Amino acid sequence: MLSFILSAKRLGKGLWRSFKRPQFLSLFTTLFLIILSGTLFYKGTEGWYWLDAMYFAVVSLIPTGVETGLYPTTAYSKVFTMIYLIVGTGVMFIMLLMLGRSIVDFSLNEEEKEEVKKRLKK
């Protein structure tokens, strides 16, 4: 349980740092709109409940291979799903990569950056 709490705290700090970056905010907004469009599409076309449609829209973009038990049934839905996965998986991957970098925080702090700049000028 302690490990989960520490990981959640680290995730929160990583999210906080990530949202300060304009690129991450743009990716987050894009991903939100992609998931929203998928949710609305599956709700309308497949007739799934809201939670099922959102669950499928999110889980299908995460590269883990989670079995949802939900499948597109019409040819139109299958074509949409193929395009949705190609576009959405790329955006999700880049966003998770940026979030991971913020959590690990490999970047130098401000003092170290200034010190490196001074050394390079000499």
Automatic annotation (TrEMBL):
Domain of life of the organism encoding this protein: Bacteria
GO BP annotations listed: monoatomic ion transmembrane transport
InterPro entries attached to this UniProt entry: K_chnl_dom (IPR013099)
Membrane keyword on record: yes
The Potassium channel domain, residue ranges: 30-103
Keyword terms of this UniProt record: Ion channel, Ion transport, Membrane, Transmembrane, Transmembrane helix, Transport
Any Pfam family: Ion_trans_2
Membrane-traversing stretches: 24-42, 48-71, 83-104
Matches recorded under Gene3D superfamilies: 1.10.287.70
Protein name: Ion channel
